[in-house]
Amino acid sequence: MHYANSETLVTTREDGVLTLCFNRPQSLNAFSVELLRALRQNLEVARADDHVRVVVLTGSGRAFSAGQDLAELGEAREFTIEEHMRQHYSPLILALADFPKPTLAAINGVAAGAGAGVALACDFKLMAEDARFLLAFAQMGLVLDSGTSYFLVRALGRTRALELALLGAPILANQAEALGLVNRVVSQGAMETQLSDWTRLLARGPSPSFSLIKAALRQAETHSLAEILELETVFQGKATASLDYRRALEAFLQKKPSPFAP
Ligand code: T3D
Predict the structure, then answer these.
(1) What's the predicted TM-score (pTM) here?
(2) Are both 112 and 216 inside the same structural domain?
(3) In this structure, which residue's CA is closest to atom 49 in ligand 1?
(4) Which of these, 12, 26, 163, 231, is most buried using a 10 Å CB contact count?
(5) Domain boundary among 184, 203, 222
(6) Domain range holding 118?
(7) Tens place of pLDDT for every residue, the chain, 262 residues?
(8) Same structural domain for residues 179 and 221?
(9) Exposure of 111 by Cβ count < 10 A (0-12 exposed, 13-18 middle, 19+ buried)?
């Protein structure tokens, strides 16, 4: 498996967990083209890498990511914004949303603009208590992008999403947790322990089942009940054909705990 080797994205693989750490701390991990390319390439490789069962995204230094690198964007003359977004952000957000294995954003610091979009596209969001989301779009005269319109309106409903997007006040960690935008808020010191509790559990979980559950929930966002019932039926057929199901069933019949019990 060939992971991109870029200084801007530190890639580590341990015990089934692939960690992709944005590494441009001098610009609060703003997304440069190099970083966006490395991120997409490594997600693509991880998709097919059987040794990877969970992916973690995080940032080095005091930020998760300050979003699009505005300096690089200001200098760029050879592409339009539309081309930039179609080439980089849209495929990246889709790659995360459709990723077949669990993804976690460890939001160690500010997540602004597209940084918020990337974090929200992950399955699990763990946030440090002094971190914040910054929907920095309107204050730059921009519109919500990188999927933030989609994720916010689904998580919060139209009223709250509009308030946060138009007024642009930072969303502090405790507020993000209360709104259901993130799963858990912990102190900086507790981030690593919480993260490894989750990744350990997920990495030894039933991967095929996780992948099917993720696909069904994603489809449930846009399909009818009848369609989802049929999808669940087909997916259950696949799940019961898996080795993981046979192992769990055998354990149950022998009155032992499931191999995947938390
Ligand atoms: O192309 C497209 O697809 C368009 C996409 C748009 C989506 C987007 O993501 S738009 C960009 C959204 N992001 C922002 O607007 C955030 C901009 N940054 C800030 O507002 C502030 O930096 C923060 C509130 C996040 C943090 O403030 P503070 O005071 O803690 O730090 P700072 O001093 O502003 O930043 C530290 C350094 O990072 C500084 O560089 P310097 O002066 O030390 O050399 C600053 O310029 C740099 N930096 C921060 N954000 C960015 C950045 N450099 C490039 N791009 C950034 N987004």
Answers:
(1) 0.96
(2) no
(3) 27
(4) 231
(5) 203
(6) 9-203
(7) 799 889 999 999 999 999 999 999 999 999 999 999 999 999 999 999 999 999 999 999 999 999 999 999 877 677 889 999 999 999 999 999 999 999 999 999 999 999 999 999 999 999 999 999 999 889 889 999 999 999 999 999 999 999 999 998 999 999 999 999 999 999 999 999 999 999 999 999 999 999 999 999 999 999 999 999 999 999 999 999 999 999 999 999 999 999 998 8
(8) no
(9) buried
